């Protein structure tokens, strides 16, 4: 481990309302959030910050020295989202305050709605990181790319040829139903890992550490639909990944997104669609409120300062992935309201199924060879 200054990287995100539907955050809301963080920087609460958005989700990227779960940092983020919500309400933006499930801050934003990805580490002399932020999907959308980045040598050749990565990584996997977590060391427990994280509706990667304990990646794995007990806002995720010098190379992290895999959360949080990697200029939701998109920003962290960002998917090398995503989007859309485009009944965030079943309750009759359909108009 390196002996540099200990820095905490906190990425906290929320959807506090957007323009013309669940399409894109309004620049004035980003400004309102930025003003609060600028004040926090002036007061020395945070060292640096960068505010961005993908679709209708605003991300506060912050550095500080207070460690994860700091009440002061979470309160600052909460205030930033509150101020942004005020602007959203004033402008009549759609679903203003969507992800702020409580009126008052109580020490920690976890459970209040915002998504949180935080890690603390001793800065290396050069500390490159990538932040990935997605809209119209869920935290387990990162399961597949994280598996590729940290466990698949066909994606990350560093696992084979970099002696500092050769021992592998430990994946912390959350069971969203039970509220429990399990740590699995790969490559040894690779198949157990895949047995879990392939079930994206239940198991979500939360942390990845190198075998020497160095944090490597963190995902915001809060699930708003479970927290709130009903659909209030989906859990569009963010994740931070440390890069280079004993971690995956930047290009290995990006490589994992060249396959636009199917993720849940498109239109009304109720459909599967391909995850399209985009630059900032395309970080907005259009077709069928999507397709689901992921934005990647790269930074260097130097004594807490955020150097950057660079817009990682804004490049011709990802044109084919985007084209493939468009083709897959078209193919999936043709299924209309049919599975597997539409999610299964337990996973949909909007559903009329219970109402329909209730209405038809008395009309379901035993079925056998003598069954006679009711077909006369007046009988229906
Ligand atoms: P570092 O070992 O300098 O992190 O980079 C490896 C590399 O060559 C990236 O492709
Ligand atoms: P968000 O979760 O991004 O607000 O989207 C909601 C939705 O239903 C879009 O179709
Ligand atoms: Mg929204
Ligand atoms: Mg969203």
Describe this structure in words.
The chain contains ten helices and 15 strands. It has 380 residues and is of the alpha+beta class. The strands form three sheets. Strands 5, 6, 7, 8, 9, 10, 13, 14 and 15 form a nine-stranded mixed β-sheet that branches. Strand 2 (48-54) and strand 3 (57-64) form a beta hairpin. Helix 1 (27-42) packs antiparallel against helix 2. It starts with 5 loop residues before the first strand and ends in a 21-residue tail after the last helix. The mean pLDDT is 93. One magnesium ion (MG) is lined by residues 15, 22, 55-57, 135, 236.
Number of strands: 15
For the biggest sheet, the summary is:
9 strands, mixed
Low-confidence stretches: none
Structural class: alpha+beta
End-to-end separation in angstroms reads 73 Å
User: Rough shape?
Assistant: globular
Number of helices: 10
Compounds present? 1,3-dihydroxyacetonephosphate, magnesium ion
Please state roughly what percent of the residues sit in beta strands, choosing from under 5%, 5-15%, 15-25%, 25-35%, 35-45% or over 45%: 25-35%
What is the typical, i.e. mean, pLDDT? 93
Element order, helices and strands? EHEEHEEHHEEHEEHEHEHEEEEHH
């Amino acid at each position: 481990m390196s002996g540099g200054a200990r820095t905490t990287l906190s990425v906290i995100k929320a959807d506090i309302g957007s323009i013309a539907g669940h399409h894109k955050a309004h620049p004035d809301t980003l400004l309102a959030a930025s003003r609060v963080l600028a004040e926090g920087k002036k007061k020395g609460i945070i060292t640096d910050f960068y505010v961005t958005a993908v679709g209708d989700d605003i991300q506060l990227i912050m550095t500080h020295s207070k460690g994860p779960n700091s009440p002061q940092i979470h309160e600052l983020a909460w205030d930033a989202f509150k101020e942004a919500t005020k602007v959203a309400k004033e402008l009549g933006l759609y679903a203003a305050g969507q992800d702020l499930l409580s009126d008052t801050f109580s020490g920690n934003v976890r459970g209040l709605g915002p998504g949180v990805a935080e890690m603390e580490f001793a800065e290396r002399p050069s500390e490159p990181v990538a932040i990935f932020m997605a809209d119209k999907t869920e935290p387990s959308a990162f399961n597949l790319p994280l598996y590729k980045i940290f466990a698949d040598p066909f994606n990350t050749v560093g696992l084979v040829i970099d002696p500092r990565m050769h021992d592998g990584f430990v994946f912390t996997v959350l069971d969203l139903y039970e509220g429990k977590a399990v740590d699995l060391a790969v490559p040894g427990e690779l198949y157990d890992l895949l047995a879990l994280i392939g079930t994206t509706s239940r198991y979500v990667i939360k942390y990845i550490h190198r075998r020497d304990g160095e944090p490597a990646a963190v995902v915001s794995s809060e699930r708003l639909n479970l927290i709130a007990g009903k659909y209030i806002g989906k859990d569009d995720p963010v994740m931070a990944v440390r890069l280079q010098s004993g971690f995956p190379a930047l290009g290995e992290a990006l490589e994992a997104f060249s396959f636009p895999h199917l993720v849940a959360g498109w239109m009304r949080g109720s459909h599967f669609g391909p995850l399209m990697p985009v630059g900032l200029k395309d970080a907005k939701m259009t077709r069928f409120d999507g397709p689901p998109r992921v934005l990647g920003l790269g930074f260097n962290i130097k004594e807490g300062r955020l150097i950057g960002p660079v817009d990682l998917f804004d490049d011709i090398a990802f044109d084919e992935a985007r084209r493939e995503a468009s083709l897959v989007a078209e193919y999936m859309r043709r299924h209309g309201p049919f599975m597997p485009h539409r999610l299964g009944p337990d996973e949909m965030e909007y559903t009329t199924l219970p109402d329909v079943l209730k209405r038809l309750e008395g009309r379901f009759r035993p079925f056998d060879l003598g069954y006679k359909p009711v077909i006369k108009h007046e009988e229906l």
